[in-house]
From TrEMBL:
Domain of life according to the entry: Bacteria
Entry-linked InterPro entries: P-loop_NTPase (IPR027417)
Name of this protein: Terminase
Length: 428
């Protein structure tokens, strides 16, 4: 029995070309706001209905991304359109009641676990942040002899001239096709927020803007994480203003225990000082901070990553140590600005780069010349090759101060969330 369903989805031109592609392996590459999530979800649903009773797989680079973004988007499309399904949380598997088709959800960071059942189709979210071996394993599973339409597909934002670029764009083999979305194509988004892309020039640095907003493939600057840093622009003498709050951001690491002291002066974050203590505790950091800054007449705000609220082996948290210290110290109580969950690394890094120099040429981050270790961080910290993670093993002295700056900026001036595309009607 053939089942026909209508989905509320009006595809953009690039989305339609992607859905219409008959390639065995197809990709959708586009900037932010180009409708990649909608394309992924609707293609998965279409293939699940075209292959009744067969199994397909949806993957994402990590389990948190799979759970919080990819899976959530798919469930939303199914529920909004009244498509009946059962979800087995223990097996992380969905069954469509109309067809008996199964959708398996898997993270791709442990690609050796992708061996197993034959698939009729598979789809991958944010492919550029997944290892090539994961894609190769999935290709090998696309072999269900009862499938009506065998297909492997993926969506992604460009991330330099990586393996995805080489496989889908530079040297595609037979059976491969890539649709590249154009910036400003999403009429639904622009109708809601006409200046959406222009506003992002203030939130992104030039290279990140070209990649994320224009959808261009750009070559990373020697793999540097903080490629927007320029000593000629971002370094200068800074003075403490007693009429402004003191901002103290920590990275909790025993060797070295690292933190930066800053103030928001006009439109710029000014890093006044760095505190780097070898083989030190959180209490040691507090003692050194109050030695250098015994008073903060306009208030003190403390920043850190979410781990500050996690229990240590001693049965307390770094946040509790900080609170106890300043209660004993006296004076005005500090304000703690610590998130419940850390932001994605690339979003935090992108914000730091945007403050160093935004796509519209503005500088929102200045470092005092005394902060020698922070400047070395900005000049030496690199990406772990082939991943979206920072290489923390290259030099154990590096990454801590730049991380602290990122924690502060994320809590103090994180970018506004974008607006997704609207659902409209698509027939098949």
């Amino acid at each position: 029995m053939k089942i026909r369903r209508e989905i509320q989805y009006e595809p953009l031109p690039s989305q339609l070309r992607f859905h219409d592609s008959a390639a065995r392996f197809k990709g959708f590459s586009g900037p932010i706001g180009s409708g990649k999530s909608q394309a992924l979800c609707n293609e998965a649903i279409k293939l699940a209905y075209l292959n009744p009773g067969r199994a397909g797989l949806i993957g994402a680079p990590t389990y948190p991304m799979l759970r919080d973004a990819t899976q959530t988007s798919l469930f939303e499309v199914l529920r909004d359109n009244g498509l009946p399904f059962d979800f087995n949380k223990a097996e992380n598997q969905l069954t469509l009641k109309d067809t008996g088709s199964k959708i398996i959800f898997r993270p791709l960071d442990d690609f050796e676990r992708l061996r197993g059942t034959n698939l009729a189709w598979f789809g991958v979210d944010e492919l550029t942040y997944s290892p090539e071996q994961a894609w190769i394993r999935l290709e090998g599973r696309l072999r269900d002899p009862l499938a009506r339409r065998l297909c492997g597909f993926a969506v992604w934002t460009p991330k330099g001239f990586d393996w995805v670029y080489e496989r889908f764009i530079q040297n595609p083999v037979d059976g491969y096709e890539c649709v590249q979305a154009e910036p400003n194509e999403n009429r639904h988004l622009l109708k809601q927020v006409p200046d959406f892309y222009d506003r992002l020039k203030r939130s992104y640095d030039e290279a990140f803007f070209a990649q994320e907003v224009l959808g261009q493939y750009v070559s990373p600057k020697d793999g540097l994480v903080y490629h927007a840093f320029d000593r000629k622009v971002n370094v200068g003498a800074a003075e403490w203003d007693p009429e402004l709050p003191v901002l103290w951001a920590l990275d909790f690491n025993v060797n070295p225990m690292s933190s930066i002291v800053a103030q928001q002066q006009a439109e710029r974050l000014v890093v006044l000082d760095e505190i780097v203590l070898p083989r030190a505790s959180t209490r040691d950091a507090c003692l050194e901070f109050v030695r250098r800054y015994p008073e903060w007449p306009a208030g003190l705000e403390i920043f850190a990553d979410a781990c500050a609220s996690h229990l240590q082996t001693a049965g307390t948290t770094d946040r509790e140590i900080l609170q106890g210290f300043f209660e004993d110290y006296g004076g005005s109580a500090p304000v703690f600005r610590i998130p419940k969950r850390n932001p994605p690394v690339r979003d935090r890094v992108g914000l730091v780069n945007a403050k160093l120099r935004s796509a519209n040429g503005e500088t929102g981050l200045v470092v005092d010349a005394r902060c020698k270790e922070l400047m070395l961080d900005f000049e030496r910290v690199r990406w772990l090759e082939g991943t979206g993670e920072i290489d923390k093993a290259r030099d154990l002295k590096r990454t801590h101060l730049s991380d602290a700056v990122g924690y502060l900026l994320w809590q103090d001036s994180q970018p506004e969330h974008g607006v997704g595309e609207r659902n409209r009607r698509l027939f098949w």
